[in-house]
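Batch job 17 of 40 flagged for manual review because the log was empty.
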Amino acid sequence: MVRLIVGAVLVLVAVFLVLVMRATKKRREEMAMVAEALGWGFQPHRFSLKGKPYARLPLLRRGSFGTNALLKEGEAVSFFDFTYVVHTGKSSQAVIQTVALFQSEGDLPRFSLRPEHFGDRIASKLGWKDIDFEDEEDFSNAYFLKGKDESAVRSLFNWHLRDHLSREQGWSLEGEGHWVLIYRHGKRASPGDYARFIEATETLFGYLEKSTL
């Protein structure tokens, strides 16, 4: 009986691994087609983030490599899949998202922006405040923004950026020094939506960059 159970478990594991390998291969092939259509470079395999100047950004500190990178020739911008693992007791879960990495011409204050959750509102009543804009209730209710240099972060998040984020909710932005990371947490851009993802993140970065000029 024990042998049957062990055998069944091994078969399930083998099937799972085959499905993962097929999905990985399919994703790589689809991203290669997207890169070719855009005329961009493509790096399909894992690449290390260790030692990179942008590896200190909060999301990227959770993992150590990216995959399926699209590289825009002549510009310091890349789009890639980033995975990190959350461990909860005896189980673990991989969280995958497509991210856009931009290099800014300015020297940015350290900041992070993400969608605000119910727990954030409770924490705020206990004294853990984020950066709110009194004249932008929609933005302040939708996002949790923090940064050590509050004045600099407020200046960075100009009205155009806040207004756009209020209308296009669900984004996360992180920045420090010359690097900005933009993504939707836990969301991987599909091949059919990749062009829209690129356009949306470039628009957000463009608004942000205006405050550094």
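Reviewer: the log was empty due to a logging misconfiguration, but the result itself is present. Helices lie at 2-38, 118-125, 137-142, 150-156, 159-167, 194-210. Unflagging and moving on to job 18.
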